[in-house]
């Protein structure tokens, strides 16, 4: 049996509440104290006049407190309080039925209850309470119901518990009355809370209450869809059969090329993702580049569009060239410009072929396509192993560029393909030229709608190339035989000596007619229909013909230039040149203007551009201007822009310069006529004819 | 003769019973996770209450309500036609065991 100290007190059953006692006692204590506190207040009143509003701290001292000296006060007594009940027995022994012996209990209950009071509460409105109150006659204390209730009894019980006997405890009715009258003031005094006397402060505050607001919203209801079907046995069966068939199929597929596909797919996805990374910024980067260039070359663009040389108004027969953009690419420096060509569709795009004219110093080749909108960097770049000697952009398919190389091969590049290699290229066995290809020219599609172009090479052949599927088929159009009688070869065969073609041009109106210039200085008028002989031969120059060009408007007139410093104008029906101009240096290229039948321009190896207008001056150039910055730079090629009054010239250092023609160089016929404002080819032809009539009368006389 | 002919037929029937025992999702617009869970639940319910479609449906419905919020509807049966309105991404129509169709959808 556990033995524990239990000094709990059993109270009488009618004890009301312990609270009642507590408050009563408190009030009593407070009441007892007040006189002392008052005294102290009085003594310290002088100092605390201003602090009346503060809570007063009062010392409560029991009467029997020991009076100690300072020293005694400072003395320390160490006393450890433990939760062990000193009265609890430590050697409780119980009989264990399991082991049939007495055993010591390990844990001893240390709980000691010193006081316990069971109470019960009554509602003051209940009958019992009323009765009690009536018995106690205390109905007059409504503010202190707990105190009022059966207070006498409670007090008696509580005090009885403390072991003190009080006469009131057994009190009769009269005494209860008295007690009640005493408690009323006591209750009033008990309002004051007994505070912690050592550390106490009280603050109160009220935080701001946030006002309430209402917010309402409504979300969209989740979307709903109707669904209907029928479930029955055959539907279910069919679905299963279908599913099984599909599974089998996919199994077969996997078996066949599961591995292959997966690897392929991985590769593709890797490439795609890489490509995506670059292509994503490609377009913005391009736009930005164009913007930067537009700002950088703003003044040139303004000149290109609006600048007109005002001094032209004061001189009749002179014109000037205004240099505009200069195109160059790092890798193209010191690679001579061997050909230039405007794109027929994109009017700002020009193709430039780079190679070398020096027989001893052959280099790699380069094709650059520049846009006027971005002079600083080519739009397209193609590197080739051998020098590019000529190129031509297809008039109908502007992404196709035919190229002739120094090693005699020809190729076709496609600008839309993102590859460096030509889309078509002739091979050694495919009938390529055995000498440099000097000029290529796209032709109209043939009867089978295959694209084709012509090329002329140093081996004396003019070859037609047809693009069939993915190969180039060649057909010899003409062999440039020399007039000499054929030499006898081995076994009775005859060896023809072939001339060396350097230039050709196709008649603008007559489809079959074309001219071929040779290194011997001859110009042959040929027809596509006759491969064995020439229609005519002109003894045009003393040295290699660099270029022949049909007039843009007049069907009979063509122009030739040569290394023998001369530019000659011919009528293809006559063996004698109509005009001969000596330019004092090897003439690299000539070009007719697209806007006038009488205007042409030539470039010479001393770095000059010569622009003629026969209508204005039949003897001298209107403009003779050095356009290169460095001495000894030779100009190699010239081309008129088909739309703008602009020419581009290429030099042997790899630069392409664009020049604007001043107003005098592009005079239109209306200015001369004054009244007539007619334009068009007829006018141009008439203009030329008129000029020719002047020249033709004395045919013997040159110039 | 008749017995001989009947045997392979029976076998075939048995075979397709066996072959068609797996759950086959006929139509569903649920997301992957939900679909798998719902499908497994349906399979469990149908296996547990193989003979009582009503309790199977109740189990499916109540579990779905608990897992994905109310209100779910479930139909389990061997032959029925239906026309329902469901919330998008909350429909599963599947076959199971070669003969049962189960449709579960949410519409609150």
TrEMBL record, chain A:
PROSITE patterns: WD_REPEATS_2
Residue ranges, compositional bias (Basic residues): 25-35
Presence of keyword Lipid metabolism: no
Localization per Swiss-Prot or TrEMBL: Cytoplasm, Cytoskeleton, Cilium axoneme
One Pfam short name: WD40
WD repeats: 538-580
Keyword line: Cell projection, Cytoplasm, Cytoskeleton, Dynein, Microtubule, Motor protein, Repeat, WD repeat
Region Disordered: start-end pairs: 1-45, 128-227
Gene Ontology molecular-function annotations: dynein heavy chain binding; dynein light chain binding
Coiled-coil ranges per UniProt: none
SUPFAM superfamilies: WD40 repeat-like (SSF50978)
InterPro entries: Dynein_IC, WD40/YVTN_repeat-like_dom_sf, WD40_repeat_dom_sf, WD40_rpt
GO biological process, one term: cilium movement
Chain intervals with Polar residues compositional bias: 195-210
Major localization listed first in the record, in broad terms: cytoplasm
GO CC annotation terms, alphabetical: microtubule; outer dynein arm
Gene3D superfamilies xref list: YVTN repeat-like/Quinoprotein amine dehydrogenase
Biased composition (Basic and acidic residues): 163-179
UniProt superkingdom: Eukaryota
Quaternary organization: Consists of at least two heavy chains and a number of intermediate and light chains. Interacts with BICD2. Interacts with CFAP45 and CFAP52. Interacts with CFAP53.
Family according to the record: Belongs to the dynein intermediate chain family.
Known function: Part of the dynein complex of respiratory cilia.
Protein name: Dynein axonemal intermediate chain 1
Source species of the chain: Branchiostoma floridae
Name of the encoding gene: LOC118404324
UniProtKB/TrEMBL annotation, chain B:
Transmembrane domains' residue ranges: none
UniProt cross-references to SUPFAM superfamilies, sorted A to Z: DLC (SSF54648)
GO biological process, one term: microtubule-based process
Gene3D superfamilies associated with the record: Protein Inhibitor Of Neuronal Nitric Oxide Synthase (3.30.740.10)
Record-linked SMART domains: Dynein_light (SM01375)
Keyword set, alphabetical order: Cell projection, Cilium, Cytoplasm, Cytoskeleton, Dynein, Microtubule, Motor protein
Keyword Cytoplasm appears in the UniProt entry: yes
Family annotation (InterPro entries): DLC_sf (IPR037177), Dynein_light_chain_typ-1/2 (IPR001372)
GO annotation, cellular component aspect: axoneme; dynein complex; microtubule
Pfam families with a match to the protein in the record: Dynein_light (PF01221)
Subcellular location: Cytoplasm, Cytoskeleton, Cilium axoneme
CDD domains: DLC-like_DNAL4
Family to which the UniProt record says this protein belongs: Belongs to the dynein light chain family.
Subunit relationships: Consists of at least two heavy chains and a number of intermediate and light chains.
PANTHER family the UniProt entry points to: DYNEIN AXONEMAL LIGHT CHAIN 4 (PTHR11886:SF2), DYNEIN LIGHT CHAIN (PTHR11886)
Free-text function comment from the UniProt entry: Force generating protein of respiratory cilia. Produces force towards the minus ends of microtubules. Dynein has ATPase activity.
Protein's name according to its UniProt entry: Dynein light chain
Naturally occurring in which organism (per UniProt): Branchiostoma belcheri (Amphioxus)
Phylogenetic placement of the source organism: Eukaryota, Metazoa, Chordata, Cephalochordata, Leptocardii
């Amino acid at each position: 049996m556990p033995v524990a100290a239990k000094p709990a007190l059993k109270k009488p059953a009618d004890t009301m509440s312990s609270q009642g006692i507590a408050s009563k006692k408190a009030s009593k204590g407070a009441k007892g104290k007040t006189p002392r506190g008052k005294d102290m207040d009085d003594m310290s009143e002088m100092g605390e006049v201003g602090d009346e509003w503060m809570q007063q701290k009062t010392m409560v001292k029991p009467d029997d407190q020991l009076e100690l000296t300072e020293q005694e006060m400072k003395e320390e007594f160490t006393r450890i309080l433990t939760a062990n009940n000193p009265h609890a027995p430590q050697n409780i022994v119980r009989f264990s039925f399991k082991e049939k012996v007495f055993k010591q209990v390990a844990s001893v209950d240390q709980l000691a209850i010193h006081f316990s009071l069971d109470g019960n509460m009554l509602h003051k409105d209940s009958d019992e309470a009323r009765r009690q109150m009536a018995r106690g006659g205390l109905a007059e204390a409504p503010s202190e119901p707990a105190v009022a209730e059966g207070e006498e009894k409670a007090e008696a019980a509580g005090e009885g518990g403390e072991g003190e006997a009080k006469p009131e405890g057994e009190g009769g009715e009269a005494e209860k009355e008295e007690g009640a009258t005493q408690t009323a003031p006591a209750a009033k005094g008990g309002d004051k809370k007994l505070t912690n006397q050592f550390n106490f402060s009280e603050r109160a505050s009220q935080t701001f209450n946030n006002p309430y607001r209402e917010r309402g919203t409504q979300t969209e209801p989740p979307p709903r869809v109707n669904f209907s079907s029928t479930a029955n046995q055959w539907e279910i069966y069919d679905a299963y059969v279908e599913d099984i068939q599909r599974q089998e199929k996919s199994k077969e597929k996997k078996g066949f090329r599961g591995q292959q596909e997966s690897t392929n797919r991985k590769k593709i996805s890797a490439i795609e993702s890489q490509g995506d990374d670059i292509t994503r910024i490609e377009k913005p980067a391009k736009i930005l580049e164009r913007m930067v260039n537009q700002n950088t070359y703003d003044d040139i663009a303004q000149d290109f569009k609006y600048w007109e040389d005002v001094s032209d108004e004061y001189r009749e027969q002179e014109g000037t060239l205004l240099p505009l953009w200069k195109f160059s690419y790092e890798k193209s420096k010191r690679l001579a410009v061997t050909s230039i060509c405007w794109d027929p569709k994109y009017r700002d795009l020009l193709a430039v072929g780079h190679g070398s004219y020096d027989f001893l110093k052959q280099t790699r080749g380069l094709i650059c396509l520049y846009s006027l909108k971005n002079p600083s960097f080519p739009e397209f770049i193609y590197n080739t192993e051998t020098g590019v000697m000529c190129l031509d952009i297809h008039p109908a398919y502007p992404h196709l560029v035919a190229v002739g190389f120094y090693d005699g091969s020809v190729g076709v590049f496609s600008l839309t393909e993102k590859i460096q290699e030509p889309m078509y290229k002739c091979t050694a066995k495919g009938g390529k030229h055995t000498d440099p290809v000097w000029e290529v020219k796209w032709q109209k599609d043939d009867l089978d709608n295959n694209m084709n172009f012509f090329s002329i090479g140093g081996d004396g052949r003019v070859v037609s190339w047809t693009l069939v599927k993915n190969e180039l088929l060649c057909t010899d159009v003409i062999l440039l035989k020399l007039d000499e009688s054929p030499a006898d070869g081995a076994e009775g065969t005859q060896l023809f000596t072939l001339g060396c073609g350097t230039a050709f041009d196709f008649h603008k109106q007559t489809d079959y007619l074309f001219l071929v210039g040779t290194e011997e200085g001859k110009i042959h008028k040929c027809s596509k229909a006759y491969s064995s002989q020439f229609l005519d031969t002109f003894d045009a120059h003393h040295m290699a013909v660099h270029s022949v060009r049909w007039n843009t408007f007049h069907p009979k007139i063509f122009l030739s230039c040569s290394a023998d410093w001369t530019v000659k104008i011919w009528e293809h029906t006559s063996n004698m040149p109509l005009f001969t101009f000596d330019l004092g240096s090897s003439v690299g290229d000539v070009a007719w203007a697209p806007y006038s039948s009488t205007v042409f321009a030539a470039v010479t190896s001393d770095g000059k551009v010569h622009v003629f207008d026969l209508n204005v001056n039949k003897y001298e150039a209107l403009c003779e201007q050095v356009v290169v910055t460095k001495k000894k730079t030779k100009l190699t090629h010239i081309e008129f822009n088909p739309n703008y009054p602009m020419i581009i010239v290429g030099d042997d250092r790899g630069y392409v310069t664009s020049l604007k023609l001043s107003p005098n160089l592009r005079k239109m016929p209306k200015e001369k006529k004054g009244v007539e404002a007619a334009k068009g080819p007829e006018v141009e032809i008439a203009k030329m004819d008129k000029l020719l009539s002047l020249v033709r009368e004395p045919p013997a006389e040159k110039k | 003769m008749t017995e001989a002919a009947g045997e392979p037929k029976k076998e075939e029937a048995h075979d397709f019973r066996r072959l068609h025992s797996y759950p086959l999702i006929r139509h569903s617009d649920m997301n992957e996770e939900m679909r798998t869970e719902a499908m497994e639940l349906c399979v469990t319910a149908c296996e547990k209450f193989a003979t009582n479609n009503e309790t199977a449906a109740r189990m499916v419905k109540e579990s779905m309500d608990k897992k994905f919020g109310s209100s779910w509807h479930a139909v389990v049966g061997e032959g029925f036609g239906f026309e329902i309105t469901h919330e998008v991404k909350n429909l599963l129509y599947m076959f199971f065991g070669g003969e049962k169709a189960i449709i579960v959808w949410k519409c609150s």
